């Protein structure tokens, strides 16, 4: 355990988050996503897990240390519901509230069609599989920057 670091964030996840660069994608996946096969195609090349927690809790923990790339564009993508691209299921509503709280302002997620989501995920830095059982609990987070004046030394 470390002071100020949430227990959900293990060493492998912290290392990956630290190694990501500005603009890199991170995939948070539910239990139905082909996490392992997609993870093998990412930059990291191996699957990371937070398997005993739901996606919203995982994202909340990750956003406690990861800056989002929000000044210019939306930085959190959500997998679209097949045939209903404007539908936002409860899991995605929960994550939206977490993102808004982390950013201190409304930061709308952008929708990504399912097959397009898989293709983007293959180009991500890494995949973190969660224990999320609900459908459409898959998200893309884009890493931002921390200005020098806000960096902790």
TrEMBL record:
GO terms for biological process: fucose metabolic process. Its EC number is 5.1.3.29. InterPro entries: RbsD-like_sf, RbsD/FucU_mutarotase, RbsD_FucU. Keywords: Isomerase, Plasmid. It is an enzyme of class 5 (isomerase). Gene3D superfamilies: RbsD-like domain. This is Fucose-binding protein. It catalyses: beta-D-ribopyranose = beta-D-ribofuranose; alpha-L-fucose = beta-L-fucose. PANTHER family: FUCOSE MUTAROTASE. GO terms for molecular function: D-ribose pyranase activity; fucose binding; L-fucose mutarotase activity.
């Amino acid at each position: 355990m470390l002071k100020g670091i949430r227990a959900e964030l293990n060493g492998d996840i912290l290392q990956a988050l630290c190694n990501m660069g500005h603009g890199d994608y991170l995939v948070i996946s539910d239990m139905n996503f082909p996490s392992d096969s997609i993870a093998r195609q990412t930059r990291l090349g191996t699957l990371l897990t937070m398997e005993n927690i739901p996606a919203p809790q995982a994202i909340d923990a990750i956003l406690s240390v990861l800056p989002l790339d929000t000044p210019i564009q939306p930085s959190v993508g959500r997998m679209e519901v097949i045939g209903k691209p404007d539908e936002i299921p409860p899991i995605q509503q929960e994550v939206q509230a977490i993102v808004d709280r982390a950013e201190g302002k409304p930061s709308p997620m952008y929708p990504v069609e399912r097959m397009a989501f898989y293709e983007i995920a293959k180009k991500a830095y890494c995949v973190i599989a969660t224990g999320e059982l609900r459908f459409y609990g898959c998200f893309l987070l884009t890493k931002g920057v921390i200005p020098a004046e806000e960096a902790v030394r």
